[in-house]
Structures are given as structure tokens and as C-alpha cells.
Amino acid sequence: MSDFDPKAFTLELDALGLKLTATRMVDGTIRINQWRMHEYWSNERRATDLWERTIAANDSNRKVLAEFLLELSYLTF
Fold this sequence. Notes:
Elements: H1 6-15, E1 18-24, E2 30-36, H2 44-56, H3 59-76
Antiparallel strand pairs: 1-2
């Protein structure tokens, strides 16, 4: 079992200026959207490194994050 915490990961990226949302596509897949805020550009390297280490190379973490973000969007709206 993974020790990946999608809430902590999302909050950490949010603090670096990278906001994440998710959209369920027509085919049932979930797309993760990245929104770069003003403060992102001074933290770009840290945010990119964190994303690469945690999500890019790990499909399991990506699926957990996508489901978390989608659930969060349902709670928001």
C-alpha cells in the first residue's frame, strides 16, 4: 500500500502556486488540470520536481490524486 497522501500533496503544490482540479471525461477517464498562479513562477522548479517525483512516474499515485480531486470538486459545487 502506498503512503501517498493526496490532500497533503495538493496543499503543498497549492502553496507553491500550482492549483489542481479534475474533470471527468466522456470516456470515463479523469483529466488532472494544472492552474499556474502568479507565485508559481518563482517556485517552478520545486513544483515540477515534486510533480515528477510523486505523480509522473507513478500511475497508482496519479489515479489516487485524480479521484481525490474529482471528489473535492463535487464537494465544492
